[in-house]
Amino acid sequence: MLPYFQDEWKVRPNITLNLGIRWEYYSVITEAHDRMTIFDPTCTRGVLPGTNTPVPNICPKGAPAYFPSYRNFDPRVGVSWAPGAFHDKPNNWVNIAAFAQPPQDANGVDTHFGDARNGIVRAPNVWEADIALQKSTKLGEKTALEFRTEAFNIFNHRQLGDPSHLDILSSSNFGQIDTPVSFNPNNDNFVEPATGLGLPRTLQLSFRVRF
Prior knowledge:
- By secondary structure, this protein is mostly beta strands.
- The chain has three domains: 1-25 and 69-87, no CATH class; 34-64, no CATH class; 91-211, no CATH class.
- 0% of the residues lie in helices and 27% in strands.
- The chain has strands at 4-12, 15-23, 46-47, 54-55, 73-81, 131-138, 144-152, 202-210.
């Protein structure tokens, strides 16, 4: 058991500093029957097992493999930075102050349609990072055990969908995004409301025997 101390400081809303220190000590390894031979270019009086003739670069019997130190401290420094471009704002994706309702007549009816061009409101960019690791271990000449782990959306990045409230009259939730990408509006609560992209981090483990 090796002690360590670690803490995090949030320097700014998008910058986190991680500092720590670890102390390590490993005692000298030994061989139960003292048959370990150590090669060292500075040694001159060692002998090989079963002989009595000194051999260059072989340490004497009983010499330590290395010299342990109680002053082995290992500092740890980490920085986590989230650029502002990656901070999606689902509660204020479209600025309502950039729009105005068309003029109305005496009866409260709009006198003409709006003049906003097509395509001025776009959904957030969608990206996802996946990773997979695989290890194969031979069990025999023709048999192997294969272990595989896969992580989807490894950074747990939010995949926001389209803004679904674009009615200028509903100012309370105008321009908000309240669904993930690939959202299934017909969800029956038996499965995830999103499929494919849009899911939180997902891990998958598998074992397979090849023969």
